[in-house]
Amino acid sequence: MEIKTKNETKTAVVRATVPLRELPGVIGEAYGEIMAYFFRTGLSPTGFPFVLYGNDDMDALRVEMGFPVDREVKPEGRVEAGTIPGGEVLSEIHVGPYTELERTYTPVMKYIQEQGLAVTEWMYEIYLNSPEDTPETELRTEICFPLKR
Length: 149
Known about the structure:
It is a single chain. The chain is of the alpha+beta class. Helix content is 22%, strand content 36%. The chain has one domain (2-146): Multidrug-efflux Transporter 1 Regulator Bmrr, Chain A (Alpha-Beta Barrel). It has helices at 23-41, 102-115, and strands at residues 2-6, 9-18, 50-53, 61-68, 80-84, 87-95, 123-127, 140-146. The protein is globular. The chain starts with a strand and ends with a strand. The model has no long low-confidence stretch (mean pLDDT 95).
């Protein structure tokens, strides 16, 4: 685990409230819509895809799914402008299937509690490679908990 400073990031996102069990399909649809938006507008992602979780209600997760961009997004359909605020985050890399993320979340949550860290109500995951061209066992996900200072 590492505490790092992240810069504020402009994003192109699709927002939704969804049960956890439906999230994988919703993420795929959202990324597809954003990629089609990029194709139509000439905008390009400047980094890896992410999901920002606005709460921890597994029956009604508030999420923003998207990509970082280098200029403002003009809303079109469900694609909107977003921002990942800058600041310090507790970061950890999960290696393996998305279905096993809890294996990494458990020690991160324990560390937060043991260290008395104050974290925001929201957090995000950055997907550092793609299941389309990476074996499940080699998938890399950066888990980021923004710190309150």
